[in-house]
Structure formats: structure tokens, C-alpha cells
Design goal:
CATH class of the largest domain: Alpha Beta
Bound molecules: zinc ion
Helix content: 25-40%
Structural class: alpha/beta
Number of strands: 17
Radius of gyration: 21 Å
CATH architecture of the largest domain: Alpha-Beta Barrel
Amino acid sequence: MPSLLLTRIEELVTNDPEVPCADGLGLLRDAAVVIEHGQVAWVGPSAAAPAADRNFDCHGGALLPGFVDSHSHVVFAGDRAAEFAARMAGTPYSAGGIRTTVQATREATDEQLAVNAGRLCAELLRGGSTTFEIKTGYGLTVHDEARSVEVARRFTDEVTFLGAHVVAPEYAEDRDAYVELVAGPMLEACALHARWIDVFCDRGAFDADEARRILRAGIERGLTPRVHANQLQHGPGVQVAVEVGAASADHCTHLSEADVAALADSQTVATLLPGAEFSTRSAYPDARRLLDAGVHVALATDCNPGTSYTTSMSLCIALAVREMHMTVPEAVRAATVGGARALRRPELGRVVVGGPADLVLLDAPSYVHLAYRPGVDLIAQVWQGGRPVRSPDVS
Ligand SMILES: [Zn+2]
């Protein structure tokens, strides 16, 4: 692969702690970047840029690390537009809506699932998410969860087994049997192609003991836990997540002081998903409280057909700033290095020599425009491992 010099970068967000910068973004102005063999080979001021095989003019735009979307549910069939419209007309959300998608997913062929997931993954990538996680959780049988894992694995290394999304409808009268199914044969069928195990620990889903049973079975099988926690009400989800050493506790909308303290004392990232509050017209998590307590925060889309049908990390950044009182640098860091931490991929979310050339170019002079110009597609180009996504690189 020939080397490529990106020139005329007005503002470069490196997230490199070696680059002095008050807000932690490691900002460089009037910068250049060289990509070679899929990696960042050089970063520095334009005036000092070395020659490369080809040049790409960034026309004074801002360049950022690719977004790391650490929470999505894009393997499913059907849509729930009617449910969304009803909710906007006043019907409240409960976790049971997931069952509508379960039925459609079970009826779909593998190819239909793959086509739908592929469409959404392409959307994620065009939107600047150069790494994304995908959860299962709309099959809820051994067979349907196993094929969901297989479909997800076609699109990402970051596959999460979420057989414990809700209790499968045919086990409604025997929850214990479903928990044993998830922690036993279903886990066995899914573990080989998954990296993570997740449980929805909340009202209408699984309680603390059920979550512990499933997460510990996953850990024994070599998976690393993450938890859907405290989305719908106060509860034990965050405490369970910290207790089992989860990489992230996701949602974190209803937290006690003890929850915040537990997160601050742990390696567990609080992943905030403002697309869900936006789409369910619910109160947003208190990001300031988490950040001020020293909790590591990530932003992700939660892309799913029920409660957050968006692939746009740009929207999530704008919502985090406007609705959750995060500063723009905090939101951008949460969408990049925060997501990388939530996926335990420290090489991601940064523009540093030797790191992957996962980059997002904005048709705007500053990263601030991601929040300042909500709803506008500002992304001019995306490179994933040095490969252009939106259009061929031109000299
Ligand atoms: Zn989710």
C-alpha cells in the first residue's frame, strides 16, 4: 500500500497524552499525518511533513481519531417505527418491547440478518465509527443466538453474547430454566466467536443473582463481562458490574452515590447512551456527576430498533454536550478514547505513530462543529486501517 500524506489539517485531535493540551485532546494546528501500511507513520506540523507516495488535501478541515462505538445491537430483523410513534404519542417504554424484535429475528434467514446488519455497519463506518461492538440478544434460543453471533462476527471482532437480554417468551413461567439455558448450552454455542458477555440487569429483565450467575459462567468460558445497568430505575446493575470486573456498565441513568463511588474506584467504564434517552424521551444520565467523581466515561450509540435507532456518534456527541452538560472535549474524548477503554483496546481512539490509521476528516475547521452543527453530516472522509471509506483518495 503506497504511503499517503494528509496535508492542510487545520486542527488535529491526537488524544496523545504526550502532546501538551489543557483539555486532553492533544491538539495540533496546521498539521499533517502520514499513513503507511494501515498505520499512522508520522504526525507533526505541516511545514515539517516528509514526502509520501501520494498527497491528500484536507482543505483546512479537522482530523480526529475514528470513533469507537462500544455498544450496538445491529443483528436483528424488522423495525419498530410504529412502537416509536406510539411512544412519542404517550405510551411508556418497558424492556418487553424487545420481544417484538425477537419474533422477527427468529423468522429471518441468516442472509436477511446479515444484509440488515451489513447496511447498519456501513452506516456506522461512514459516520466515522472505525471500530464498533455488536451484541446478540434478539434470538434467545441456542440456535438463534449462535447464528446471531456468527452474523455479528462477519462485521467485527468485538462480539458480545447477550442471551440475557430478556427472558425468552417461552420461559416466562420458568425464569430459572432460562438462566440455566443461557449460562449453559447457549453460552457454550456462542462463546467461541464472542469476546464479551452482557446481561440486561434492570426492571423487566434480570435481577442481580441471575446476572451474577450468567456473567460468572461467561468469565469461566473466557469471556469478559459488560452489563446493561441502571437504565430504567435504581438497582444493582452497576454494583454487579464492578463486582465481576466488567469492562463497562452501560446506561448508568439512575445512580446512587454508592454506585458513582464504586465506578470511580474501579476499572469499569460508565458507557452513556444518550440516543436511548433521546428516543424514549427520558431523563439523561448525569454525566457531570460521573466525570467530576473521576469515573471513566464512554459514549456509544446503542443502535437498536427499539430505543435508539441511530448509528450517529456525531449525534451522541451533540446530545452529550447539549443535554448531559459534557464539554465538547469531554464528549469527543468519550467517543474515542472512552470507547477504546470500554473495549479494552488502548491502541484505538488516538492518532499516534504506530497506531492504526483510523481517522475521521470533518468538512469543518474544528472538532467543536460536531456539537455546534447538530444533525449536519460534516464527515468528509473516513479511513479505517488506512483504507478510505467514503470515496477513493485522490492526489
Ligand atoms: Zn443496549
